[in-house]
Amino acid sequence: MSPLAKLAAVVFLIPSGVIAARWNPVVRHTTHHSRSVGPKGITASVYQPESTFETYGVNGVDHPLSKRATQASPQDAAKSFLESKLGVSADRLVRKNGHVDNRTRVANEYFRQQFNGIQVANAVANVAVKDDKVLSFGASFIKPRRVASATPRLRKQNAIAKAESLTGAKYNTFPVGLEYFAKDNDQVVLTHTV
């Protein structure tokens, strides 16, 4: 068979395979993942809320503080933009990190959503700012129907013992904290984290 005939055969086979493949609406590759955890290899389901990402071209767009006489810091510009764009109040945002690329002068600011002063592990946002303009933003913030109490029902020592028992791992004295975790049923649960 000539190389051209082989290429033609492959070209005709590829679309037919794609057309014949049925889409499974239950599969959620972008938001749900499984991980093997600990020596026992238990399977843990991981959920990442659906995210959005928008770009605003090389010139960017104004943020709510851009009408002021003085230029806002990238952190303040990003925070006010998220408040406006996502309809989130300032007390529901906590800055995780930020940096400025000295070569491009683009500032990247990273935030987490929080409730009751406790951060949500899987609800994050980022904003790129240059010359007092927003170039892009991405977010996986949530609007939960229910947020768990900020008081844990399980004591830290009991949570450690339960995790050791389930995973077969041994606690290494790394600091334990509290974080919320957004579930795929529009609820936010309180978790002990290591």
UniProtKB/TrEMBL annotation:
Gene Ontology biological-process annotations: proteolysis
Domain annotation FTP: ranges: 106-141
One annotated GO molecular function: metal ion binding
Pfam families linked to this entry: FTP
Superkingdom of origin: Eukaryota
Record flagged with keyword Zinc: yes
Entry keyword set: Hydrolase, Metal-binding, Metalloprotease, Protease, Signal, Zinc
Annotated signal sequence range: 1-20
Designated name of the protein: FTP domain-containing protein
